[in-house]
Design goal:
The protein has 217 residues and is of the alpha+beta class. The chain has 6 helices and 6 strands.
């Protein structure tokens, strides 16, 4: 096959098309695939007839010139979180991965924005200082008579999210008379929303703990 023309754009475009950091050999083979080399014939760098050394040298030059960013995998994981894809073409346990300077800038900004949002969520959760919440349900008829939830005359429902002492934190109201539009679906949606609110503080605390554990690895 005719040797490809290796230049700056070939390397940068291959990384942009991949949309993720790549190890050195993976980047080389990706560049050749982008140039039209058959993926089934040329599966790894070792399958390439020529040009791989020149491609590696070009990658190193672009890195030295600041066009490429090379970081260890823990740093990429810190920047990209669970979006950091460690799948490799060559199956190597390489420590360093390459990305373009523009990719690094975009991803670092996204990481900063994500960190700021996580900090804001953590601050709000801490400031609220909510105890474990409970659900208090009240059902009544059109005439205002209190009824059991399964009573057919019960067409109004209040789902209160309360603290253990009874103080109300939030409330979900639902009218579900038979002549209302989709009454069963409306009540089910209200119950789901109330359940979400009841568990939101503990669920958020759990997820934030997972995020912090991942960030500290």
């Amino acid at each position: 096959m005719t040797p490809i023309t290796l230049n700056r754009d070939a390397i940068l475009n291959a990384l942009e098309a991949a949309g993720r950091p790549l190890q050195r050999y993976d980047l080389v083979i990706t560049v050749f695939w982008a140039a039209g080399y058959d993926r089934t014939t040329y599966r790894t760098v070792q399958d390439l007839p020529d040009g791989s050394l020149e491609c590696i040298q070009l990658i190193d030059r672009l890195h030295a010139e600041g066009e490429l960013v090379r970081l260890p995998s823990p740093k990429w994981r810190q920047i990209l979180g669970t979006a950091f894809d460690t799948t490799t073409i060559h199956g190597q346990r390489g420590y360093h991965w390459f990305a373009t300077r523009d990719q690094h800038t975009r991803w670092t900004k996204a990481d900063h924005d994500r960190a700021e949002r996580i900090s804001a969520i953590t601050a709000r959760l801490s400031a609220a200082n909510l105890p474990p919440l409970e659900l208090r349900r009240t059902d009544w008829s059109d005439n205002g008579a209190l009824l059991d939830a399964d009573d057919p005359e019960a067409v109004h429902t209040s789902l209160e999210i309360v603290e253990p002492g009874g103080a109300r934190v939030a409330e979900v109201l639902c009218n579900h008379a038979p002549d209302d539009e989709q009454p069963a679906e409306a009540l089910a949606a209200a119950e789901t929303a109330a359940d979400l609110l009841v568990h939101a503080p503990t669920d958020l605390a759990f997820l934030l703990a997972l995020i912090n554990d991942e960030a500290n690895r």
